[in-house]
Amino acid sequence: MPANSTEEVIHVFCPSPPAGPFTSAVSADAALEQIMAMRQLLATMKEEENALRSNLGIFKIDQPASKDLQKLERELDYIQQVWEITKEWEVHWEEWKNGSFKTLKTEVMENTAFALFRKLNKLSKELK
Predict the structure, then answer these.
(1) Is 52 helix (H, G, I), strand (E, B) or coil?
(2) pTM
(3) Is position 11 within any domain?
(4) Number of domains, the chain
(5) What angle do helix axes 67-98 and 28-57 make, rounded to 10 degrees?
(6) Measuring CA to CA, how many Å separate 23 from each of 86, 111, 119?
(7) pLDDT band at 1 (very low <50, low <70, confident <90, very high)
(8) Which structural domain range is residue 68 located in?
(9) Given Cys at both, which of 6, 20, 24, 113 links 68, Cβ 3.0 to 4.6 Å?
(10) Is residue 113 part of a domain?
(11) Who's near 58: CB < 8 A, 6+ residues apart?
């Protein structure tokens, strides 16, 4: 198999740019499913890269790990964290929305909302 650039390999697996889970129009569950599919694709690409690196070892050629694949994995981690926080919020919101007004505990609601906000804020700072 001839050596392809990462972009060419990605184009083979994803002929058109992926419609990833980047907007609120996607549900958290659907977004997490898309992320899992991308992780499977990433694992396949890593396996191919490792096979190529192993085969290059025959010729004593040292090929470093793909920085593009490492970057993609980090970005998937960040996107997954955002969607997991979103899903956690949706679960709590659904519970509060459909629960009895008498049983609502505003302190718990406030603490939960603030904790999720802190997680998102921390993630935002990491990405800057």
Answers:
(1) helix
(2) 0.77
(3) no
(4) 1
(5) 160
(6) 12, 26, 19
(7) very low
(8) 28-127
(9) 6
(10) yes
(11) none
Helix (H) or strand (E) holding 127: helix 106-127
pLDDT tier, 10 (very low <50, low <70, confident <90, very high otherwise): low
Q: What is the tens place of the pLDDT at every residue in 87-102?
A: 999 999 999 999 898 8
Cα-Cα-Cα-Cα dihedral sign, residues 41, 45, 48, 50? negative
Helix (H, G, I), strand (E, B) or coil at 28: helix
Flag whether 63 is in a domain.
yes
Q: What angle do CA 113, 119, 125 make, to 5 degrees?
A: 130
Written as one letter, the residue type at 74 is R
- The set of long-range contacts for 33-36, using a CB threshold of 8 Å and a minimum separation of 24, is 35/76, 35/79, 35/80, 35/83
- Residue 41 placed within a domain: yes
